[in-house]
Amino acid sequence: MDLERIRKDFPILKTKVNGNDLVYLDNAATSQKPKLVIDSLVDYYENYNSNVHRGVHTLSVKATNEYEKSRSKVREFINADKDEEIIYTRNASESLNIIAYTWGSRNVNKDDDIFITPFEHHSNIVPWQELCKNKKANLKYIPLTESGDVDLDKFKSMIGTKTKLISITHMSNVLGTLLPVKEIINIANSTPAVTVIDACQSVPHMPVDVKDLDCDFLCFSGHKMLGPTGIGVLYGKFDILNEMPPFLFGGDMISEVTYEDAKWNDLPYKFEAGTPNIADAIGLGFACDYLKNIGMENVWNHEIEIGEYIFSKFKSLDNFEVLGEKSKEKRGGVVSFSHNKVHPHDIGSGLDQFGVAIRTGHHCAMPLVRSYGIVAASRASVYIYNTKEEIDIFINRLLEVEEYFK
Ligand SMILES: Cc1ncc(COP(=O)(O)O)c(C=O)c1O
User: Do 72 and 88 meet the contact criterion of CB atoms below 8 Å apart?
Assistant: First the structure.
C-alpha cells in the first residue's frame, strides 16, 4: 500500500488543529472522506441534481442510473446475490430498527428468545429490548467463557425452537474484538432463527462476504467506510426481505394506490419510501470503488499492523490499561484504554490541544464499558491513512497529557 499516495487523497489530513498537524484516530466513530467521494457529491449537485425513479428527462435518468449503479457496487462489495437485497437506509441504526419493526413485529411472539452478545453497540441492543418489551419476549445474552470469549457450547445448549433471532456484532467498536460470527451463524442455522450481523466495524475494514457468512441480514453505515453521512445499508436474503412488510409508507414504495388501498413495490424499493438520499448513496458507491481499488485484504493487514503497533507501545506504559482482547488474530485496529488517575475526557481534550483526535466516553456501549468497572474509556481507532509516525505522536502527546494532569 502506498500510504503517501493514499494520504494525499484525503484533503482533511492537511488540516491543522490547534496549530498542529491533524492526527485522526477516531475512525470507529466516522472515517474521513477521499476526494473521489467528495467530488462525486459536488458532481451530482453541480451537474445532474434531480429526483430518481420518476422523471423521463435527461438529469433524472442520469441520477437514477448513478443511484442504481451505486447499489450494484455495494452488492458486489459484500458479495450479495442480487441488487434487490441491498436496501438503502440512513445508517446502521436504522437498518437494525427496520428488522426489529418489520421482521420482528411479524415473527416474534410472547416467550420467544432473541440473543445478542455482551459486546454490542446500543444500536444492536435497544431495538431488541423494545421489541421484547412489546412482545413479552426474552432478550438473552450469549454467555462468555472465563477468558472472555463467546461460549459456543453453552450457547448451543441455550437455543431451540423458541429462538427467533440472533444479532451479533462482527467486531466490537470498543475492544476491537472479532466475534466468531461464522461459528455462531452455523449454530443458529440449525434452528429456525434468523441471524443479523452488525457489520459497522467490519465491512469498512476487512473483506466481508455475505454468501460465505450465510447470514440472513447484515447492517452497516456508509460514513464509517469513507462514504458520506446519512447513508446506510440493510442487506437481507431476498426471500426474507420479500416476505417482510414495509417499514415506512409513501411514495416510491408502492406499485399501485387507490383511494382505499395500496400494493407494495418490488424489492428494494418497498423499503425506500420517499425521495432517497441520492447524492450520498452515489458517494457510497465511489467509496466502495476506492476501497476495492486498494483491496480489502490490504486494508485489513495495514490496520492490524498499526493496531499491533499501538498495543506494543501501551505494553511499556505504566498507569494505562488496555481493555479487551490482546491477541492480534482476534482483533482489529481499535484500542480502548483507561488511566488509573486521569479521566478519559481530560485525556481526550488534552490530546486535542496537540491536534490528536481520539474518542472518549462510553462509545455507545455502556453495558460493555461498565463491565470493566469504569464509566468511560479513551479509544484510538485506525484506518487506511494512519501511519506509525502518527502513533508515535499520539503516544508522546499522551504522555505529556498524563504528566500535566498528574
Ligand atoms: C458496532 C456498531 N454498531 C452500530 C453503530 C451505529 O452506527 P450509526 O450511528 O452509523 O447508525 C456503530 C457506530 O459507532 C457501531 O460501531
Answer: no
